[in-house]
Amino acid sequence: ATTPLNIRSGASTASHVYGQFQPGRMIRVYQSVSGFYTTYPRVYSNATNYSTIQWLNALETDVRDVADPLKVDRNSSAFYQFLDLSKTTGASAATLDKMLANVTKGLGIFNKCSNGSCGQAFIDAGQKYSINEAYLISHALLETGNGQSTLAMGVTWNGRKVYNMYGIGAYDYDAINTGAAYAYKMGWFTPEAAIVGGAEFISTKYIHNEYGQNTLYKMRWSPMRPGSHQYATDMGWAVKQTSRIYSLYQQMDSYTAVFDIPVFAR
């Protein structure tokens, strides 16, 4: 085809459009139905497989199911999408260090803070910018490959070693150099400085911003201003971030977990 082809839910121009195949793309066709062609079936509507992986427009019913707080099991890890990220866990530095060691197997930067406790650095960051320590740790582990990325381990920039624990300012086209330049600009010359300093960015841009996005759920759906300042378009993004946070909480002997669950009225 020389023009885009709509990917529809049925053999009708009135049916839902999941997306488009662009001109020149090879697809496997199974049969013709009323002038339409069938290809790979839909598995689920936000990310499925049509000859290769492709993001698709979700059905309204799919979004309603995923975005409805009442349909989330309170005993599941998915419920942690409602964890208030502005509240402390109350965990000790020793507990956080033990958690980091368990996850990283003793490897990477989170076992090499200058004062011997990266856990304390996360506590300091959480207290300074009112952010949940478990969330900060989860975010840092994700962005640094469990503390073993080049930016996490340290990059020499302008003659000084800099660290970047959350991938802030690291653009895909040249992540190492752009991330290192940003770290140098911010003065992140120790692992602790990068942990605490990066938390300020997360705090101001998301947790304590004008959109009130103090939970993963709110970061994804932005209920105060629907459609505005959403962290991701994947309708399952909030749930996908909860497994590690939930796992970290399960490693604590005692903790505080505050949940903020939106209530919608018709």
Explain this structure to me?
- The structure is a single chain.
- The protein is of the alpha+beta class and 266 residues long.
- It is globular and about 70 Å long.
- It folds into two domains: 5-57, no CATH class; 69-250, no CATH class.
- It has helices at residues 60-67, 93-104, 118-129, 133-144, 150-153, 175-186, 191-207, 216-221, 237-240, 242-250; strands at 5-8, 17-21, 31-33, 36-38, 47-50, 52-55, 155-157, 160-162.
- It has ten helices and eight strands.
- A hairpin with a 1-residue loop joins strand 5 and strand 6.
- The model is unreliable at 41-53 (pLDDT under 50).
Features:
alpha+beta; two-stranded antiparallel ribbon; 10 helices; globular
> Based on CA inertia axes, which overall geometry fits?
globular
What percentage of amino acids are in beta strands? 5-15%
Largest beta sheet: strand ordering: 1-2
Number of helices: 10
* Low-pLDDT residue intervals, each spanning 5 or more residues: 41-53
Number of strands: 8
Q: What is the distance, rounded to the nearest whole angstrom, between the alpha carbons of the first and last residues? A: 45 Å
Order of helices and strands: EEEEEEHHHHHEEHHHHH
- Provide the structure class: alpha+beta
The average pLDDT value, as a whole number, equals 85
Largest sheet: 2 strands, antiparallel
- Tell me the helix content: 25-40%
Summarize the structure.
The chain has helices at residues 60-67, 93-104, 118-129, 133-144, 150-153, 175-186, 191-207, 216-221, 237-240, 242-250, and strands spanning 5-8, 17-21, 31-33, 36-38, 47-50, 52-55, 155-157, 160-162. With 266 residues, it is α+β, with helices and mostly antiparallel strands. Mean pLDDT is 85; it is low at 41-53.
